[in-house]
Amino acid sequence: MNAPVAAPPASSRSTTKLAIVGAGAVGSTMAYAALMRGAARTVALLDINRAKVQAEVLDLRHGLEFMPPATVEGSDDVAVCAGADVVVFTAGAKQKPGQSRLDLAESTIGLVRTILPGLLDVAPDATYVMVTNPVDIVTYAALKVSGLPPHQLFGSGTVLDSSRLRHLVAEHCGVAVQNVHAYIAGEHGDSEIPLWSSASIGGVPLLEWQGRPGFGPLTASVREAIAHDVVRSAYTIIEGKGATNYAVGLAGSRIVEAILGDERRVLPVSTLLENFYGIDDVCLSVPALVDRRGCDGRIDVPLSNDEYDGLKRSATALKEAARGFGF
């Protein structure tokens, strides 16, 4: 008689845990995107609405057969976030049609003051990624409230805006979006600026792009229209369906992958700047390295005079807003 087959030894591979604070449109979509992309082996949702978070968890669990191996948890108790490697903060006031991101600051900062201390108790070593708007002000406030070093807590910044920019450029030029390399810098909001001078398409500097048959060149007027559409994108979506969730969910999960995969990926996240081209003590987006340590340093991307002036204006606007909220 054959001896029973022994169970295989438990894997020594460390697992990864992503905690998402807020089970609304953005938080639940980010959980879905992270699961579909296999970003983490455990995804935990935290929300004060117990019925809502339990329903979201159940719905996600019913699709686990069709995803990379993972588990999903959820609760209204902060303990569900214990031991998280990455905590993504999406909780905040919902942006209404016609409302600017800065208008949301006061109530969202109040949530940060309430929720963040408990998160630090259960996940002190996690990397914290702030996604809720206005992300630059909220990130600055969260750094002050938490006392965490800037590499451990930063905002999603203009990762989504840069994706919008690349999509519009690719559409105009008739190329795959993956061949467009361009960044939005500054505020995730109305004062953000495209970094045209360092952008490229398939290795060709964007400002030298001559177009191809059936597609026009990127003239100054075309670039201006594209930049305007990037800024207005969120307002257009909110007016049409009430919230942005799909693209921001994917952008957030991409940041999580860069952290957990120790990718050293260059992403335009919102970080505390200290003497970056003379800009100090403000959170805004510039290209930065993202890896297992979090935000591991800024990239000194070349700036034209106009881009430098735009970045300074964006920093001034954000500083004034932060001072208005007592920071």
List the helices and strands and how they pair.
Elements: E1 17-21, H1 25-37, E2 42-46, H2 50-61, E3 71-75, E4 86-89, H3 105-122, E5 127-130, H4 135-146, E6 153-155, H5 159-173, E7 180-181, E8 184-185, E9 193-194, E10 200-201, E11 204-205, H6 220-241, H7 246-260, E12 265-267, E13 270-273, E14 282-285, E15 288-291, E16 294-298, H8 305-324
Parallel strand pairs: 1-2, 1-4, 2-3, 4-5, 5-6
Antiparallel strand pairs: 7-10, 8-9, 10-11, 12-15, 13-14, 15-16
Helix pairs in contact: 1-7, 3-4, 4-8, 5-6
Please give a structural write-up.
This protein is of the alpha/beta class and 327 residues long. The chain has 2 domains: 139 residues, NAD(P)-binding Rossmann-like Domain (Rossmann fold, 3-Layer(aba) Sandwich), CATH 3.40.50.720; 166 residues, L-2-Hydroxyisocaproate Dehydrogenase, Chain A, domain 2, CATH 3.90.110. It has 8 helices and 16 strands. Strands 3-2-1-4-5-6 form a 6-stranded parallel β-sheet, sandwiched between helices. It has a 3-stranded antiparallel β-sheet with strand order 7-10-11. Helix 3 crosses helix 4 and helix 5 crosses helix 6. The N and C termini lie far apart (75 Å). The N terminus is likely disordered. Catalyzes the conversion of lactate to pyruvate.
What are its keywords?
6-stranded parallel β-sheet; Rossmann fold; 2 domains; 327 residues; disordered N terminus; L-2-Hydroxyisocaproate Dehydrogenase, Chain A, domain 2; 8 helices; alpha/beta; single chain; 3-stranded antiparallel β-sheet
CATH superfamily heading of the largest domain = Lactate dehydrogenase/glycoside hydrolase, family 4, C-terminal
Profile the largest sheet.
Answer: 6 strands, parallel
Series of secondary-structure elements, N-terminal to C-terminal: EHEHEEHEHEHEEEEEHHEEEEEH
Q: With helices defined by DSSP (H or I, 4 residues minimum), what is the helix count?
A: 8
